[in-house]
Structure formats: C-alpha cells, structure tokens
Design brief:
Largest sheet: 4 strands, parallel
Radius of gyration: 20 Å
Number of helices: 9
Number of strands: 4
Order of helices and strands: HEHEHHHHHEHEH
Length: 252
C-alpha cells in the first residue's frame, strides 16, 4: 500500500534505555517528536506525509507530539482517552473488578474503594490511613485487590498523568484526525471519548475528523473468542486504517 511504519520501544521497554515510569509526559511526547524527526532524515520517506498512530496511552498523548513537531501531516488516535485521567483510571479498574462482585453492595463497596485509591494516587486526596482502613474492611470481598506497594511507580506516574487535560491538547491539532475505538473497550470509555475529542476538534476549527467505532471490539480491536477459542480482529478495522491513510497520502 506504499505505507512505511516506524515503531519504537517506549523508554525501558525491549532494548530501549531509560524508564517510562520515571518520565514526564513531555519526555514521552518528545520521544514521539524525535521519531518524526528521524523519518524526516530518511530519503525513502516523503517528508510531507508523515503521520502519527498512537494506541491507548500513545493515542492519548498524540496531540502533544503534534504540538512539538510541525512536520506531522495526520493523526490516528487509537483508543485515545477523551476523559480526565483519573476518571479513565476509575473506569478501567472498575471494569476489571465488577465481574467479581456478587451483589449490588459488593459493587458499591468496590466503587468506593477504587475511587479512594485513585483519589489518593492521582491527587494525594484523602490519606493513606483512610485507604488502609478500606483495605482492612474489604480484603475478604470477592472483588478485592491490594493497592500497589508504597514504592511502586504507580503512585508517582499517576501524579504525573493526573494534570494532563487531553481535550486542551486536541484543541490545538489542525491536521486530519482519525479516531478509532472498540465499542466494548473496558479500558477507555469509547463512545464518550470519541464524542468529546471530536467535538473539541470541530469546535476549535478542525473539520477533518473521522470517527470509527467497531461493534463488539475490545481495547485491542479483538472480538470475543468464538467456538474455535481464537479471538478475531474486528471486521473492517485494518482496511479502515489503510483506506484513511491512503486518502491522506493522496492529498499531497
């Protein structure tokens, strides 16, 4: 299809040096901008047609990369969160514990526990003593999970991410945008995120916004396994990406 892809390991992943858990959001965005700059020096690449495809956290931070590079021609935001980070974290964690709740009271208690944990992790609200007291009364519940250890990077990275406002970053994006989601995403609220990001882009003058939400698909665009036991990729997912990128390629 005439499309090349540069895929790099995040800091501290694979053979990449550093540690993403100790990085700022600006560090991570700068890494993406550096990848764009690297492609600018590649003679086989058309410098006018370099775009970004970011998934999940990568999609959420994609507009920060655009702000750091004036060479980005288009953006694919894949499972990009359009809600505040703490809200997204509550959504994600609750989706992992709700299936283990046996009663309505279990669900309510789980929500109270998760809300307190996220409030403490992201904003330093409440207190460790209050969180520990919830742990003590919840530890025998079917949905319970222990908080990360005090020295776990979750606590520091949550505070870094807490102040990020994705819609404010998307408001500055002027290049074509494709937003793709799985309708059954349990990590990112798909319909709400798509609606909020698209509305912000259009409100600030970017009319070149396309949204695709794939029925039955999860966070990685897979469908629930069928009788064979193997999950399938959502029909039309790959072709939608290729077709949209082909349109961008033909514009220059």
């Amino acid at each position: 299809h005439g499309v090349a892809a540069l895929i790099f390991d995040k800091r501290g992943v694979g053979k990449s040096t550093g540690d993403w858990r100790q990085a700022t959001l600006e560090d991570l965005a700068s890494d993406g901008a550096a990848a764009v700059a690297r492609l600018q020096s590649e003679p086989r690449i058309d410098k006018r047609r370099i775009g970004i495809h970011g998934h999940s956290q990568g999609g959420t931070l994609a507009p920060l990369i655009v702000a750091r590079s004036n060479q980005v021609a288009f953006v694919i935001g894949s499972a990009a969160a359009g809600v505040p980070p703490d809200s997204g974290e509550i959504f994600s964690v609750l989706n992992s514990v709700y299936p283990k709740a046996k009663t309505a009271a279990d669900s309510a208690n789980a929500r109270a526990y998760v809300s307190e944990l996220v409030e403490f992790a992201y904003w330093g609200g409440g207190s460790r003593a209050k969180l520990d007291s919830l742990v003590a009364v919840s530890k025998d519940q079917p949905w319970f999970f222990a908080p990360p250890a005090p020295d776990n990077s979750y606590w520091t990275f949550s505070k870094v991410f807490a102040r990020y406002r994705p819609l404010e970053s998307w408001a500055r994006v002027r290049v074509p945008v494709l937003l793709v989601y799985g309708a059954d995403d349990q990590r990112v609220p798909a319909a709400e995120s798509a609606s909020r990001i698209a509305a912000k882009l259009r409100h600030t003058g970017n009319r070149d916004v396309t949204v695709r939400i794939f029925p039955g698909a999860d966070h990685t665009f897979r469908l629930k396994p069928g009788p064979s036991g193997w999950p399938d990729t959502a029909p039309g997912y790959v072709s939608s990406l290729l077709d949209w990128v082909a349109i961008q390629r033909g514009r220059r």
